Amino acid sequence: MLTALLAVTCVLASAQSKTNICGAGIEYQDRNMVDYTVTVRVLRGRVIDPAGVAVPRACVALFNSDHSKLLRWVESGDDGRFAMDRIKPGKYWLLTRDPQKAFCPAAARLQLRTSAARSKLIVHMEMKGIDSCSFCEAQ
User: Fold this and answer.
1) Which domains does the chain show, CATH number per domain?
2) Pairwise CA distance, residues 129 & 56, whole Å
3) Residue 13: its H or E element
4) Which residues of 48-81 are buried (b: 16+ CB within 10 A; e: fewer)?
5) Model's pTM, two decimal places?
6) Which of 1-15, 31-45, 50-64, 96-110 has the lowest mean pLDDT?
7) How many CB atoms lie within 10 A of CB 37?
8) DSSP E strands: which ranges in 1-139?
């Protein structure tokens, strides 16, 4: 009986942690010291840790320009890659969180422009620090 109760508790805790990291319950966060804009043609890229290793199952969330509404989200694959199709050109906010919440969340203003020179995002997940946080760049 105790074993069954522990198994159910573990399953519920696991399901709850998945819900908290990505999905309708994700909330916008911004720990940047300075806001910046990343401009790309399409919304695709890779999430990596400080050593350049892929961060699997990272939640990549797209918010409207005043970050009041979650528009769409995806999880990065085992190789850290992600893509969101059929996003109209415009201004958005991008938020990325790792599943263990070990890294500082990456938040960046995102501008999608068909004429942008760069077409790929790299999300650098960094440990939480006093003057540093995760960030995004276009490549």
Assistant:
1) 2-138 (2.60.40.1120)
2) 22
3) helix 2-21
4) bbeeeeebebbbbbbbeeebeebeebbbbeeebe
5) 0.78
6) 1-15
7) 11
8) 37-40, 43-48, 59-63, 70-75, 81-84, 90-97, 106-112, 121-124, 135-138
